[in-house]
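Record pair follows.
FIRST:
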Amino acid sequence: MTREYSLHMARLSGQSNRFDEMMEYMRQVVKFPGVELNSEERILFNHVCENLIDSCRKPLEYMTEHLISDNNEYIINNLSFICSDIIKLIDDFGLPNSSSVENMVNYYQMMGDCFKCLAEIQPEQKYYAVDVEGAYRSYLKAYNAAKNLHGADPTRIAVALKFSTFYYTVLKTPWNALAMAKAEYVMAAEMIEELPESLYREATTQLRSLHDKICVWEQEDRERQVDLQLRLNQVASRTIVSPCLRRGSLTII
């Protein structure tokens, strides 16, 4: 089976929404020695990974929301297998075959997404901390590699969006999320006019998404500050009776 045949069949499978078949063909493309993915092939790889994950995650979210427990364990196990399989494929073949910044960023970001998904679907399991650390290390490697790209490159903005969201939603450190998102937003906004037309539109879309996140997080931060101040005011307004006063109020016979 040639690489070109695998690519052709992967495209056909994707057009028919046969993502299990598409993954098997893209697996052969990724494993092909000495050849890196180009831009179109990265899109195909991301497309099949995201759709396989969503095919399990969306039903699981629906069932959780509506308190449906039937087949939950089956779906979780299937989703765990998909994410672990993607991580192994990238770790064993994708990264060793890659030297370009774009491929390394893309692979590390996808690994981060998979580890994050594993942590989210089974937060009570003993591997939760391992999955969270795996996501953090993967996103960090993607973010550091993306620093070699142009300051307004859409791939760099997308990584900053993913990593800052991970800080906010999983690590629960909104200050880190806002600091990273704001720094990348300011840089990208200043440099976006330098981009070629082929990247400008996608960068604008990613920058708008990053801006929207910053606005939401800042609003939530203001609400937290208001709530904290109200709580402090309530504590300060309470009348606390000193134990000494209570003792002094006793009549000694």
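SECOND:
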Amino acid sequence: VRHGMQTTAQGELRHTTHIVESARKMRLPELVHCGALYLFHKFRAGEYADELDPSVVAPTCIYLASKLQDFPTELRVIVTTYFHVLHKRVPLSEQYLELKETIVNCELLLLRAFNFDVHIPLPFKDMLHYLYALEQSRPFGDGTAPQRTFQHIAQLSWTLLADAFHSQVVLSYHTGELAVAAIHLACLMLGYRLPVPHGSQWWHCFVPGLTVEVLEKMVAAMLTVYETEQDSHHPDGGGDGSSAARDSSGRDLAAKDTGMLEQTVSLG
């Protein structure tokens, strides 16, 4: 069962990696990348997931997300870029019109599957708001370079959130919870401990009902992205060796030792 689950996760990671690689080649903002990934997961988690080829759903999500994020991109550009990401060095000829028409039809099917609810909740603003609030209450760092520490935490938190969109964890929790998990994990990875109010946790002023147990589950789910990426390099993994971390953020976070990352899951 575990092998089947891993294979499925690697397959989903392959599609999400294609989405990000295509979006980056088109120089689309990262919010469009994440929006497309969110829509992809939303459809794949729904009851109609098996009725459409994910290789068609993926570019359709880019097309739809680009419009929803106020960065509309010509369908012609999306079709040609995604095709060349999927099929290296294969000329696009008569398949162009077929794929273009398929994406147009797929967009209508996605909208119906979503019941025309295409709101894309993104946690990046929440994360920055929480960090700025924490910085105002008590500057980061050891007193010598607090701004540098703040920037490191913010950059790594952003990266972790962007990479989290390679999994369905973004469907399971609201943006405030995801923002807290990313900040917490970033601080653990950087060796920085946030001040804890007496009898409480630092995040309770932002997300009052969030428990340590739920936070642990979120952190573990976020780390699963890197574990799945590493499994794709294993001879039995069947993956193509693509890195979610490199594609979404430009940082080779997935190359970090998985054991070290797993140690950060425990909040004790």
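COMMENT: The first helix runs from residue 2 to 25.
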